Amino acid sequence: MFGLFWPAPLGVDLGTGSVKVIGLNGKKISLAAFMDIPSSDWEEEALLINRLKNFFKEINIDGKDSKEHIQR
Prior knowledge:
There is one protein chain. The protein is built from 1 helix and 3 strands; from the N terminus they run E-E-E-H. It is α+β, with helices and mostly antiparallel strands. The chain has one domain. The protein has a 3-stranded antiparallel sheet with strand order 1-2-3, with no helix packed on it. The relative contact order is 0.20.
């Protein structure tokens, strides 16, 4: 497991977020995106999931390769 973090790509607003490589399996790489959003700025869950989907699209991960989950 890597302990690699980097900021979100330009133009992608995750608040103060980062991405961590959480596992390597053959050619598959698992990524976790962490968004640090103050509770006062929480949006509807659907909007947060859409923001996360846009982030993964920005780094060319979408469709069946992309899974989004919001944990409050």
